[in-house]
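Appendix C: a fully annotated inverse folding record. The material below is reproduced so that readers can follow the format used throughout the book. The structure is listed first as tokens, followed by the designed sequence.
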């Protein structure tokens, strides 16, 4: 099994009415429930837009915490899902279900293997 990250940038969401968003919520929750029932769900969540981000930076040798995003950008992560699936085809299937439920595009990336001695993962 391999873990995949399925995510979207907030800017991909577009402008929609509150009613439109309320209608999408049950659809997205249904996909999460389906992932759980299939045993592929690891994590899913949307990120708050209005709370300020902060960074932790130790590149100078002194740990520094700074309010605000590390890089000023018009795009920022809006939400993410992690699935543990047998192959890329399954990751594509789940990303498609999420994209259809949410109503905006999703990007998919495979996590590096997290084996002993490979330096990947945390």
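Designed amino acids, in order:
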């Amino acid at each position: 099994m391999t873990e995949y990250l399925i995510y979207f940038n907030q800017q991909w969401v577009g402008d929609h009415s509150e009613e439109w968003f309320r209608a999408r919520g049950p659809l997205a929750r249904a996909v999460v429930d389906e992932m759980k029932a299939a045993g592929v769900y690891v994590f899913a969540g949307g990120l708050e837009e209005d709370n300020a981000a902060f960074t932790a930076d130790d590149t100078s040798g002194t740990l520094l915490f700074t309010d605000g995003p590390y890089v000023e950008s018009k795009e920022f992560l809006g939400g993410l899902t992690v699935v543990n699936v047998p192959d890329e085809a399954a990751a594509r299937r789940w990303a498609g279900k999420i994209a259809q439920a949410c109503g905006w595009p999703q990007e998919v990336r495979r996590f590096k293997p997290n084996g002993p001695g490979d330096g990947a993962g945390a």
